[in-house]
Amino acid sequence: PASADPAGDLALQVLQALANTDQILSTEAFPSVPFETLKASLDRLSSRSMVVYEQIERQEAILEAEAEEIVQHGSHEARVFEAVHKALGGLSISDLETAIGDKIVTKVGQGKAFREKWIKKDDNKLVALVDSIEDVTRSQLRFIKETKSHDSKIIADLKKRKLITTAKVISFKISKGPKFALEIVKEETDLTADMLASGAWKTANFKPYNFKALGGHQVSGALHPLNKMRHEFRQIFFETGFTEMPTNQYIETGFWNFDALFVPQQHPARDLQDTFYISDPKTAGRPGPVSADDKQNYDEYFENVKQVHENGKYGSIGYRYPWAEEESLRLVLRTHTTSVSAAMLHKLAAKKGPDGRVPPVRYFSIDRVFRNEAVDATHLCEFHQVEGVIADYGLTLGGLMEFFETFFAKMGLTDLKFKPAFNPYTEPSMELFSYHKGLKKLVEIGNSGMFRPEMLEAMGLPKDLRVYGFGLSLERPTMIKYAISNIRELLGHQVDLNFIERNAAVRLDKD
Ligand code: PHE
C-alpha cells in the first residue's frame, strides 16, 4: 500500500502540486527535496503513467556580494555620475570621495564615468557632461537576480568582471500523465488464488514489472581465498594430466611421514621441536593392507625400509645405525603430504606387469600439513602444501626444470631460478625461486627433486623408473595475490569474515 512507502508522501505532494497547473518545475515546487528522493517518487508516479517528467539541466547565475551592492545602490560609475550631477558647479575629487564615502567606488567609478563621457574635469572640478545616464550594469544584475539567467554574452561578461558566478542546476519538468489522479491507487503485486476465485483479477490494477530494478544484496556463503587459489591450482594440474591423491588423513605414522622417505631416525625434522607427536594413542600398528584388494606384501616392504636405513640396499650403503621399529610406528601430524606421495608410489609398485614395468603416473594433492613452528607474520604451525609426483622412464633433472617452467608460466610466474638443495628423499634436489615484482626480489616458491632409489626400490618399483617430486606452499602465492602481508589474516582465528566475503575470485595472471 502507498502509505507504507516512504516515498509515498512526496509522491502525493507532487500530485497535489500538479492539481491546478499543467506543469511544475521541481526546483521551484520542491526546492529542498534531494534529487534522488524526488527522482524515486517521480519514477514511481511515471511507472503508473500518473505523471510524465523530464530532467533538465541549466546554468544558474548567482550574484556576488559586490553585485548585490550594485543592485541596491547602482554601479560605481553611476554613483559617481549621480554625485557629480547633483552638485551644482561641479565637485572636487576630495568632495566626491566624501559624497560617495568609499575610496574604491570613487576611483573605479570615476575612471568609468570618464570613459563613458558622463563627466569631465573642468578647472580641477568634476562636472557632468550629460543630464541623465542609463546604469546598464545595474539593470543587467537586477534582471539576473530575478531570473537567474541572461543573455549568454552578458553572463560571460559579468562573470569575467567577477560580479556573478554560474552553477549547473538539475531540475525536473513535471506534468500530468494520462492516468493522472490525486490519489495513488493500490497496485497488486501478486495474482492470488482468491483473486482468481472471485474474479477480482479482471479489474485489479497490477503493478507493472520493473525490469530495470537492481537485485538486493545476497547474504550467502563465500569461498575462502585459499579455496579459490586451490581451485586454480587444481585446474592447472588437471589440464596437465594429473590425478588427485587422497589426502584425507592428517595423522600418519613416522613410517610414512619419514622412514619410507629415507629420513633417518636421528634427523632434526623428527625432533619434538619440529614435529607434533600424538600423545594418545602414541603409536599405531605396522603398515598393512587398507582394503581387501590391497595385495601388497607390507612385511617385505617394512623389512626393506629397515634394511636400507640400517645396512644399505639397492647399491646404497645406508645410514648404518640401529633402526627402531617403535620410532617408525609413532603417530605424528603429517609434516608434509609427501607421506601420501610415498603411500601412492608404494601402491603404484603393485601395478607392476609381467614385464616388470609400472605405468607412468602424475599425481598431485593440495592439503594441510603441520609443523611445530613459532607463529609469526609468515609462519603458522599449519599450512597447505601443493604436492606433485611424476613417475616415468628416462626422466632427467632438465626435464623437471622444463616442467616447472611450463607449469608456473600458466600462473604468470616466469624466469624461475633453481638452487641446489638437500632433502633426505631426493637426489638431486632443488629449490625453486621466482622474481616477485611487488617485493622486487626472488622468493622461494617450492622445493623439489628426484626421489632416491633407497625410497623407490624398497617399494619394489622398477630400477629404471624415475620420479620427480615437489612441494609448494598454497599460502605463499595466495598472500601475493591478495596482497596480504600477515599470514594470520588468511588462516586461523584472527581471520576477518568480511574479508573472506568481500574477496574477488582469483585469476592467476597469465600475461
Ligand atoms: N616435502 C618437501 C617439503 O615439505 C617438498 C618435496 C616433495 C620435496 C617432494 C621434494 C620432493 O618441503
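^ phenylalanine complex. The longest strand covers residues 51-63. The chain has three domains: 2-63+149-202, 76-134, 227-502.
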